[in-house]
Design brief:
This protein is 24% helix and 18% strand. The protein has 219 residues and is α+β, with helices and mostly antiparallel strands. It has a domain of 148 residues: Peptide Methionine Sulfoxide Reductase, Chain A, CATH 3.30.1060. One of its GO terms (molecular function) is L-methionine:thioredoxin-disulfide S-oxidoreductase activity. Belongs to the MsrA Met sulfoxide reductase family. One of its GO terms (biological process) is cellular response to oxidative stress.
Length: 219
């Protein structure tokens, strides 16, 4: 009953679980595939981008496989509860979505390239779900770390909406907001599909190519 009642309702700050001042678990030091540290601070010159596109197991793999990505980690973002647990997020009572933090080298790739991968890796028109995964924690989201990221994300949404509409899809429901606190998920979620290659992956795109031009690498 708890899960079904809150699947399609984002709680207000007053309704959300209160959470805790400190996380109740530790996060591994290094990425199991890329070998770099998971948590910041990151080396000077790298850029952080945050995305939500459904179950973060498959979403993270999409990004760690991309050129120029230095590290990735999964966590919870966009809600109200401090340092939530996975079970709390799945209850729908935190307001968070499952997110992937992507740390990339702008001399090798670009934010535009990551936006293209984001749009093409899921169906951003589904609201509080992604395929068979239903709930507010699976909503599509981009959390911008600068006004430039915000503007670029909004422009990319408009561009992709145009081609989705032409292919018979509805309105994009992706929320694009300034990045707030990012709470890393439990250790077993980090690089889950590297540790469990046959594990569940609910990520699937629309098959519609995103028209965003991949910008030249900066530097």
């Amino acid at each position: 009953m708890l899960f079904s009642r809150h699947k399609n309702h984002l709680p207000t700050p007053e309704e959300a679980l209160k959470g805790r001042a400190e996380p109740g678990f530790t996060v591994p030091d290094r990425h199991t595939v890329l070998g770099n540290p998971l948590a910041g601070p990151y080396p000077e010159g790298l850029v952080v981008a945050d995305f939500g596109l459904g179950c973060f197991w498959g979403a993270e793999r999409k990004f760690w496989q991309a050129p120029g990505v230095w590290t990735t980690l999964v966590g919870y973002q966009g809600g109200h509860t401090e340092n939530p647990t996975y079970e709390e997020v799945c209850s729908g009572l935190t307001g968070h979505t499952e997110a992937v933090r992507v740390v990339f080298d702008p001399t090798v790739t670009s934010y535009a390239a990551l936006l293209k991968l984001f749009w093409e890796s899921h169906d951003p028109t589904q609201g509080f779900r992604q395929g068979n995964d239903v709930g507010t924690q699976y909503r599509s989201a981009i959390y911008a770390h600068s006004p430039e990221q915000q503007s670029e994300a909004e422009s990319s949404r408009a561009s992709y909406q145009s081609v989705l509409t032409g292919s018979g899809y509805g309105e994009i429901t992706t929320e694009i907001l300034p990045a707030g606190p990012f709470y890393p998920a439990e250790a077993y979620h980090q690089q889950y599909l590297d540790k469990n290659p046959a594990g569940y992956c609910g990520i699937g795109g629309t098959g519609v190519s995103c028209p965003i031009g991949v910008a030249p690498a900066e530097g």
